[in-house]
Amino acid sequence: MATATKSKTKIKLQPLGDRVVVEREDAETTTAGGIVLPDSAKDKPARGVVVSIGDGKLLDDGSRSTLQVKKGDRVIFSSYAGETFKVGDDELLLMREDEILAVIEG
Prior knowledge:
106 residues, mainly beta, 10 Kd Chaperonin, Protein Cpn10, Chain O, six-stranded antiparallel β-sheet
């Protein structure tokens, strides 16, 4: 279990169950060909870093499952995954672990 703490705002986030908090990576500002993109043309990145994780899903026998991701993992997720919210100036996503498609290694 990991808790996200924002030092400027003194807010602690502890997701429940199999939920994770992810901070999106910054959007690309230029294309591969060098064209500068305006804010309205930028897609929200589908990559981010896991900021905190919950305790795991409650199983029928009363135990908790272990999450496959951990704090600090770089992940790929669907662009429509999770709920977006702001903590101070940071925009974060709260999503279920099964909405994460892959962990980026290396």
